[in-house]
Amino acid sequence: MTMTIAETPCLNNLWTDSIPVYEKILKLPFIQELTKGTLSIQRFSYYMQQDALYLIDFARALSLIAAKANSASDIISFIKYAEAAIVGERELHAHYFTEYRIDPCAEKNCECFAYTHYLISTVATRSLEEAIAAVLPCFWIYRDVGNHIYKHFESNNPYEKWIVHYADEEVSSVVDEALLIAERMYEQASVFTQDAMRKMALQSSVLEWRFWDAAYNRQNYVHML
Question: Which numeric CATH code is attached to 12-217?
């Protein structure tokens, strides 16, 4: 059975600060129009380009967590998550890249660049607990946003395949597993580390919001000379 954040008491502490951010994400034009099926193909295509770039670095961050993990089961779990971030999403991306003739050659916009570099630098330089807290919002926010959209979308939505994918029980079970790992880490952490975990989770939640917002506004990555 799918576990919600409310059913994981320790994670409430990680999630509470991010609730306003999550609610803000649900109100974004991108999410509202995606739910109604009125989102333009151009905006959705731009999002798919950025998402493909994001997932490669997200998989790198997950692989780094696997290298830092202390138990065999956690190593296996994060290797599995890293594989799913690339292989599991490839079919979904391939479908829309083909259907909408999306150019696979793209560069990260500012928000994608900031988000992925924040994750990789956090995982590389901070504690294992902080690293897991930093990647956690990508798990739970995508799952919860996906479930929200799934409950409200109507048939003949051109993005139904995307909507169904993120509301899938298999995807949800992976999120549940990641939440349990984070809960265990939080329970065992010192007060200082718990505070750091909350800060990391909140920062990633804000970056999630900015990623979605940039997908709608199509902000271009600016090269810094």
Answer: 1.20.910.10
